[in-house]
Design goal:
By secondary structure, this protein is of the alpha/beta class. It is built from ten helices and seven strands. The protein has a seven-stranded mixed beta sheet with strand order 4-3-2-1-5-6-7, with helices on both faces. Strand 6, helix 9 and strand 7 form a beta-alpha-beta unit. The protein is globular and about 50 Å long. The N and C termini lie far apart (36 Å). The C terminus is likely disordered. Bound molecules: magnesium ion (MG) and zinc ion. Zinc ion binds next to loops.
């Protein structure tokens, strides 16, 4: 029987699975644009991503039902489902890692019939129209990320397992140095280029499927040789 258990696929949520960065759009929409100042402070490295998320929640007022409606209006990459099915068929474990919030991730996954996919993220609680984020994995992370993806990568990786990491942004920085194969777009791609991290650039999950297929097929053809990605944009 064919098995690809030696591969673990980790994928970012906001802007990678979803078309929009749902978290960023949420805060932008419901904080009367005040969120932009906070985000630029985070981008400059003045505040940690955890602190940024705490402050964004403080300045945002939204009820649970409004947030639900907002989340359900979001779209995912049209080919992500095909990719998830491919992983299932190939018996490759696919896990979502997010420095965003569980509330909208869960709703969006359910909407697209993807609720069986495991995910690790920060948690959102509501107090009326106030948002209270919780960070169950913070202490195990790097001290900057609310939910550090590097921790999960190391924790989930099995012995001799190759890790494929797919992402689009700066919340993926901690993970890409530890991954065996990096698929990157947008800010993450710029980061990989700047830091000289080998990666496959991609635009959407159509590209991911193509790259992934090649990786798996390559590995089956010659299991002894290591697959090396040297492709750069
Ligand atoms: Mg992202
Ligand atoms: Zn981190």
């Amino acid at each position: 029987m064919r098995s690809s258990k030696n591969i673990l696929v980790l994928v970012d949520f906001d802007g990678t699975i979803t078309q929009n960065d749902v978290g960023a759009l949420l805060f932008d929409t419901f904080s009367k644009k005040e969120s932009q100042k906070m985000v630029s402070r985070w981008l400059k490295g003045e505040i940690s991503s955890r602190e940024c998320l705490v402050r964004l929640c403080e300045i945002t007022k939204i009820s649970k039902s409004e947030l639900k409606k907002f989340a359900l209006s979001q779209k995912i990459d049209g080919r992500f489902r095909v990719f998830a099915d491919l992983c299932k068929k190939e018996r490759v474990k696919l896990v979502i890692l997010s420095d965003g919030l569980d509330f909208y991730i869960k709703l969006i996954l359910e909407k697209f019939g993807l609720e069986k996919l495991p995910f690790y993220s920060n948690i959102l609680r509501f107090e009326g129209r106030r948002l209270k984020p919780e960070f169950p994995y913070f202490d195990r992370g790097c001290g900057n990320c609310g939910n550090c993806k590097r921790y999960h990568l190391k924790n989930l990786r099995g012995t001799k397992q190759k890790v494929v990491y797919i992402g689009d942004g700066l919340s993926d920085k901690c993970a890409v140095r530890e991954a065996d194969f990096v698929l990157a777009k947008n800010d993450l791609q710029k980061y990989c280029l700047k830091e000289d991290i080998n990666h496959y650039p991609f635009r959407n999950f159509g590209d991911v499927i193509q790259i992934f297929h090649d990786l798996i097929l390559n590995q089956r053809k010659d299991t002894k040789s290591q697959i090396k990605i040297t492709h750069k944009a």
